[in-house]
């Protein structure tokens, strides 16, 4: 499958059907319980190969970041330019309306005033009106000994509180190590670490910044960060689907 095959109308329909077919009750429950939820087989192996193959096509991207130059870790990533490849646009468009009710419920619970519209294009219009006009979906590329430090993807005033990472490479075949890692810091407690087991084509939806946790005196905010552990061998590619644009 070549890179252009990911932009076909059939690919958009297939992605829409897979998104609809997820167990969204389970996704909501897992997000509430642990701040992340698995989206199994969100992309096919062929789609994963095609998307990873876009990395060398300069015209697809607006910028390239070498992590070591900024203290972000080792490895590199590239932000897509508009117009996005259709498959990535479809993921944004189809996932957002299923995640927006969860995001709104979280904000109500945490006492945050921001609310998110039903449609992704309406939210992107809000971002653009505030000067956040640069697209944020990205491809990440890791080689041996590369890693990504724990971080949060906050790009401006308007931040959608959930994002999705999709593994495009096969653990045990294309690479070893390179686990997706989440941490949460609860008040007056040590940080908790969660390693999310992913196979090629699996996505994980997770909290960008904070999530609510119920305590004895009501809900409180937990700070979340994510990263990737050291790749011990091979090469690893990941697609990041962020729903807000950058300033």
From TrEMBL:
Keyword Oxidoreductase assigned to the entry: answer is yes
| Keyword Nucleotide-binding appears in the UniProt entry | no
Segments crossing the lipid bilayer:
none
| InterPro entries given in the database record | DUF2086, Oxoglu/Fe-dep_dioxygenase_dom
Q: Which UniProt keywords apply?
A: Iron, Metal-binding, Oxidoreductase
Instruction: Give the Fe2OG dioxygenase domain ranges.
Output: 133-246
Domain of life, source organism: Bacteria
| Similarity comment text for this entry | Belongs to the iron/ascorbate-dependent oxidoreductase family.
This protein is called: 2OG-Fe(II) oxygenase
The scientific name of the source species is Luteimonas galliterrae
């Amino acid at each position: 499958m070549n890179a252009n095959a990911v932009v076909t109308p059939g690919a958009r329909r297939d992605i829409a059907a897979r998104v609809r077919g997820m167990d969204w009750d389970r996704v909501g429950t897992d997000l509430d319980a642990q701040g992340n939820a698995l989206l199994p087989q969100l992309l096919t192996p062929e789609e994963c190969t095609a998307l990873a193959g876009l990395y060398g096509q300069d015209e697809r991207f607006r910028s390239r970041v070498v992590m070591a130059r900024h203290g972000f870790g080792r490895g590199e990533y590239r932000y897509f330019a508009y117009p996005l490849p259709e498959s990535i646009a479809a993921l944004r468009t189809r996932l957002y309306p299923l995640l927006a009710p969860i995001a709104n419920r979280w904000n109500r619970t945490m006492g945050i005033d921001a609310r998110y519209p039903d449609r992704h294009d309406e939210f992107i219009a809000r971002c653009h009106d505030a000067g956040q006009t640069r697209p944020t979906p990205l491809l990440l590329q890791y080689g041996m000994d590369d890693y990504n430090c724990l971080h949060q993807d906050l790009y401006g005033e308007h931040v959608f509180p959930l994002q999705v990472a999709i593994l495009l490479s096969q653990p045990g075949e294309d690479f070893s190590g390179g686990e997706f890692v989440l941490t949460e810091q609860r008040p007056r407690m040590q940080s908790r670490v969660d390693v999310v087991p992913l196979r090629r084509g699996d996505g994980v939806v997770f909290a960008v910044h904070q999530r609510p946790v119920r305590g004895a005196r009501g809900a409180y905010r937990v700070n979340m960060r994510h990263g990737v552990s050291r790749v011990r061998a091979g090469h690893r590619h990941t697609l990041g689907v962020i729903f807000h644009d950058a300033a």
